[in-house]
Amino acid sequence: MATILYRIKQGLRALFAFRADVDDALVRCHLSGPEYDLFKTMARAEQLHSVHVLRSVLAQSPETPPELAAAALLHDVGKARYHLAVWQKTVSVLAESFAPGLFDKLSIGDDLNWWRVPFMVRQQHPTWGADMLKAIGSGSLVIWLVGHHAHSLDACEAPEAHLHLLARLKQADSEN
Hints:
Layout: H1 2-15, H2 24-30, H3 33-39, H4 44-60, H5 66-74, H6 86-98, H7 100-107, H8 117-136, H9 140-148, H10 160-175
Helix pairs in contact: 4-5, 4-10, 5-9, 6-7, 7-8, 8-9
């Protein structure tokens, strides 16, 4: 029940994102020029979500590496490849929750039928985001965090310090 309420709240936030301002000054403090330009390609709802994730990361500890702050802002940048309507995001979230086998089948591959795009974006946006960040010369840790933010911690092979930062990012993302 808590998950359903969380998803409803998330959907309402996305629907009314046009009414909220993105804290541009905060964003600019944590991103390079090319990263900021990439951030601005995201839908407004994704930008607002990312700022909330950043604020949660900053609240977790007085020590926040700049790479973690940048990853908090850019973790969903791969979604900018295809801007989705709220209903499309909702369908993919519900399918992943209630029909994971179907979700997996629809989210794999490069076949861009309009009805498959929401599933592919949900599944593949971390990889797309990491590729986008590589293309603009972001740091390797930012790229790694963005590329792995949707993976289970148990599935990630990395130094303990990386896993600790990934856990912080995943916690902040799940709270927002």
